[in-house]
């Protein structure tokens, strides 16, 4: 095969080559509805067919524990590694996070049982059509009414209404956040600072009802990956700690219980050079016609100046099309990136152009996003390293 010359322009990545999340059969949005249906909660369907019902169910969500990262670090996580064959009901397969593969989106999908196009948190930062401003959905800034932004009930609320004992056991700092209100509320909230306290209390809450649905969460693995990179000494140390926490909880399960260990996304390290970190703030081509830059480095929502939508799409495809899947809003919706359906209220929150990384690259914004632009580990796109998450199972 001949080498490409400097004058050749390879075709941009075809949108159909993007590996879609398994919405409806094996995504994070399908997890709690399946578990709650097994508890007899009406109106919910068991859409992950491999899972078997249990009377007491606990979900331990470890922020940033991707499937590929776990499999690559067996020595640091012997307990979790021993459970790999149990993933997804004994099939040994992972779940998919959903797009974008980022915390606010994934937690909303977990808690509501809905894909991003319906629950309406379709990215790290997206445009609020009512104000025209970017809204950071993790920090909920600038503030907007949570119930107007995400009006659907959570699975915990539905479970509580059906007589199931529902509880969340996590850090006390999350008790009153808007994201908790719209994604994880329902039943009782229990704030505990240490990981060990959370595991012990999660086991107690499981035993507190004949039918129980308990959620607990650990975030520090993700923070270590962002700051120092996946497989750094700090990240590996956090993984060792997470492994012990999961084992601690598994050993305390009351009778008739199932524990599921999962995550909200994986992560990739991106080198610090101009080839891998494309700076929007210094690239006049990418900035031309752009009113707002949303999303994050590997999953961008691009909002064009009115009338410039087609020009922005053309330029972004020409400049980035070999490294990113670059779609118009309607193309991304038609391809199913945000799920099989997008609510009308969500439509204008999506970028006029949506760019999802294929290679180990970022679109940073060094001036407007200095903190995010300095991160070592990143996530958001549809690559296996970011999308695939475990669903490890322990039953008593």
Task: Give an account of the 3D structure.
By secondary structure, the chain is α/β, with parallel strands linked by helices. It contains 18 helices and 18 strands. Strands 6-5-7-1-8-18 form a 6-stranded mixed beta sheet, with helices on both faces. Strands 11-12-14-13 form a 4-stranded antiparallel beta sheet. The longest helix is centred in the middle third of the chain and has 18 residues, at 233-250. The radius of gyration is 21 Å and the shape is globular. The protein starts with 30 loop residues before the first helix and ends with a strand.
Q: Any chance you could write out the topology, listing elements then pairs?
A:
Elements: H1 31-38, E1 56-62, H2 67-71, H3 78-82, H4 87-90, E2 95-96, H5 103-112, H6 116-119, E3 125-127, E4 134-136, H7 146-149, H8 155-161, E5 165-170, H9 178-183, E6 188-191, H10 195-207, E7 212-218, H11 220-228, H12 233-250, E8 257-262, E9 268-269, E10 277-279, H13 284-287, E11 290-293, E12 299-304, H14 309-320, E13 324-328, H15 329-335, H16 344-347, E14 353-357, E15 362-364, H17 370-373, E16 377-378, H18 384-387, E17 388-389, E18 392-395
Parallel strand pairs: 1-7, 1-8, 5-6, 5-7, 10-15
Antiparallel strand pairs: 2-17, 3-4, 8-18, 9-16, 11-12, 12-14, 13-14
